[in-house]
Amino acid sequence: MRPEDLYSDVIMFHYKNSSHRGALENPTAAQEGSNLSCGDSLRLYIKTNGDTINKVTFDGHGCAISVASASILAELIEGKSKNEASEIIQEFYKMIKGEDFNAELLGDAVVFENLKQFPIRVKCATLAWHTLEQLLK
Amino acid sequence: MSSVKELDEYFKKLKADFPIFSERPDLVYLDNAATTQKPSAVIEKLRHFYVTANANVHRAVYRLAEESTALYEESRKTVADFIGTAPEEIIFTRGTTESLNLLAYSLGLSGKYKSFIVPLFEHHSNFVPWQQIAHTLGLKFYPVKIHGGELFLEDVEAIVKSCEKPFVFSMTGLTNSLGYRAPFEAVAKLVHSAGGIFVLDAAQLIPHEAFDFAASDIDFLAFSGHKILGPTGIGVLAGKKELLEQIRPFQYGGEMIDKVGEQDTTFAPVPYKFEAGTPNIAGAAGLAEALKYVKNISYEKISKHIENLTKNAIEKLSVIPGLTLYCQKNCHGIISFSHENIHPHDLAELLSRLSGVAVRSGHHCSQQQLKVLGVSSLCRASFYLYNTHNDIDKLVAGIQDALRWFS
Lengths: 137, 407
Fold this sequence. Notes:
The structure holds 2 protein chains of 2 kinds.
Chain A: H1 3-6, H2 9-17, E1 29-35, E2 40-49, E3 52-61, H3 64-77, H4 82-96, H5 103-106, H6 122-136
Antiparallel strand pairs in A: 1-2, 2-3
Helix pairs in contact in A: 2-3, 3-6, 4-6
Chain B: H1 4-14, H2 20-23, E1 28-29, H3 40-52, H4 63-83, E2 90-93, H5 96-109, E3 115-119, H6 128-137, E4 140-144, H7 153-162, E5 167-172, H8 184-193, E6 197-201, E7 220-224, E8 235-239, H9 241-246, E9 257-260, E10 265-267, H10 281-297, H11 299-317, E11 323-325, E12 334-339, H12 344-355, E13 357-358, E14 360-362, H13 367-373, E15 378-382, H14 389-405
Parallel strand pairs in B: 1-13, 3-4, 3-5, 5-6, 6-7
Antiparallel strand pairs in B: 2-8, 7-8, 9-10, 11-12, 12-15, 14-15
């Protein structure tokens, strides 16, 4: 297992340059998510118009994997309907579990397929996704 | 006392006693506060028990069972001699966590105590049981505030004066998060002068410091075998006999029984009333072997070597730009740190992948302690006797390599 399999260019780019980082003013909804075993936490904000999720941002603190994952998720979900977002979340979980998944739906998030080699970091990568899932309930 | 170099050479040679370092020659193991590696003598003792003496204890009259029982009780005596108690004051448990849960339940169920008190820097295993059992049984729970990572005696004094009595005060001798050597002797005095019971969590202390229970002012002591070269799944609760006799068992089952009636039961004498079910016999033998190994090397050598390693690591880590050390003035064998440009998980991951250095990252099961420090996660390097100054150099170089990834 090479470190570059985990810290790929895509992940490092999203970690260092996320355009979705920061609190959202007047969000339609926000949700706190925390990773109990390591103390990391993030807050996810969404602004919706009817059924469409127009804007997604996040703040909080976490490792490169959790921050990059939140950034990729935010980019992917913007402009999608709530149902589409839920479908994307489920595809992400399938990929993380090593099951068949629809890569077309996941965009940049496919970089996390390598997490199969780093099972301890799965909880970092799924933090934002679990948080969005809660938010959409 | 040997020089720094002589001690380093001595422990470098001794590394050969630990087969994991031959199996994994690139491993730089700096997570000793979590668990220690095992010497061949301990591994061989476990094998020897299962090959030559495996039978249940205290129950049968055949020769194999006699031998197994003798080995188990000899192990109890070795542990008792090691910490200066009588053998009947030693209860074998699964580890520190079970020892403290057992004690919190048993003291709580005795109906005698009205309050439990613990400092905020405690490991969760010495915080949550007291907090939760106090709530369950309707007792008062008092957390003692901390200052950074330190405990001030005036805070202890104020609480033990004002709390509902009788009370139990439980604290660690050495914090697992920052390696802070807490002033437990002074706290024990304050607790006793206020009429309380004092419990010492020695999980981190015992591997580093000789301890004499009989000469101490401590009522109960808990530690784990695996943090002092022994197997996992074996630990100790030591207690003053008169106190152990007063409190109730909290687990019921085989071997802890005297007479069972239709409606009531009487219990075996201490320590057996606290050892329900088949114990970890091989574990007890392995722990005894580990303690013999430590005694043979001597705490004098071990403590001095760990002090040298800690000092060297502090010197070398403090010059890395952006690195913050969360180290108390008197930290022993444990250094927690973070870097402004990289999250502790990423740093620990890259240390392992790039340099083979194993350090812990996270909240170290001390969430209240980290909250006081205003951080959610730290990296922690913790040393034990087989570590060398070369390991420190590898840690420092490893951090610099990891930082390049995040520059």
